[in-house]
């Protein structure tokens, strides 16, 4: 079933040369909210070397309608991305922290548990020297 299958249905048939029909019934198909959210990270430990690539993925086991994704960093309301995957090409000083994915189906919003990311070997401005 799809959401656009909602409507009025009836049955008609021919019985001994006579047309017979049922009363119309109304069928309403309700959407399924986003369920079974899971997140994964590459590298799988959630630890990435400074300057390396980090990929976060968000998946939904069930949900109807067009789903929209948004990525957020805990502690900031900033929107980081709007696709099922968030890719940081060069992990940097400010990329460590907790990330969360939100999925919206137009009627409801589901939020993932936060995922911890640690950037290793972050540049220390007090240590002196260059990168």
Question: What can you see in these coordinates?
Answer:
This protein has 131 residues and is mainly β. The protein has a domain at 35-120: Immunoglobulin-like (Sandwich). Helices cover 0% and strands 49% of the residues. The protein has no helices and 13 strands. It has strands at residues 7-9, 12-15, 18-21, 25-27, 35-42, 47-49, 54-62, 68-73, 79-81, 85-88, 97-104, 109-111, 115-120. The strands form 4 sheets. Strands 6, 8, 9, 11, 12 and 13 form a 6-stranded mixed sheet that branches. It has a 3-stranded antiparallel sheet with strand order 5-7-10, with no helix packed on it. It comes from Calcarius ornatus. Residues 33-118 form the Ig-like domain.
Brief summary:
By secondary structure, the protein is mainly β. The protein has strands at residues 7-9, 12-15, 18-21, 25-27, 35-42, 47-49, 54-62, 68-73, 79-81, 85-88, 97-104, 109-111, 115-120.
């Amino acid at each position: 079933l799809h959401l656009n299958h909602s409507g009025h249905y009836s049955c008609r048939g021919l019985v001994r040369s006579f047309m017979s029909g049922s009363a119309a019934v109304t069928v309403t198909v309700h959407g399924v909210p986003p369920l079974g959210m899971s997140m994964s990270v590459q590298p799988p430990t959630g630890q990435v070397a400074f300057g390396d690539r980090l990929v976060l993925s968000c998946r939904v086991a069930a949900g109807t309608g067009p789903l929209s994704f948004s990525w957020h960093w805990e502690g900031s309301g900033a929107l980081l991305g709007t696709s099922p995957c968030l890719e940081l090409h060069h992990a940097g000083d400010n990329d460590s922290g907790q990330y969360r994915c939100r999925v919206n189906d137009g009627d409801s919003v589901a939020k993932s548990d936060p995922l911890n990311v640690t950037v290793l070997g972050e540049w220390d401005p007090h240590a002196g020297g260059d990168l």
